[in-house]
Amino acid sequence: MGRALLILSIAMFFLFGMVQVSEWGRMKIVADRNNAHVEQAQALYIASSVADMVIEDLRINFGNRNNISLQNYLGGAGTVEVYDMDSPTIPASSSVTTLGPYQVLLMARGEYEGVLRNIEVLLSLPAFSKYAYFTNQEVMSGGSKIYFYDDDKVSGPTHTNGTFSMMGSPVFNGEVTSANMWIDSGGAGDPIFNKGFEVLTEPIELPGAAQLNMLVDEGINGGHQYDMDITLQFNENGTVSVSKGIGRNATPYETITLSSFNGVISSNQRIHMQGVIDGQVTVHAKEDIVITGDLKYKDDPRSTKSDDVLGIVGEKDVIVDRKAHKADGQKDVNIEATIMALGESFRVDGYNEREDKGTIHLLGGIVQNRRGPVGQTNGNGYAKDYNYDERLRSIFPPFYPRASRFSIVYWNE
Question: Which of 410, 403, 413, 412 has its CA nearest to residue 58?
Answer without folding.
Answer: 403
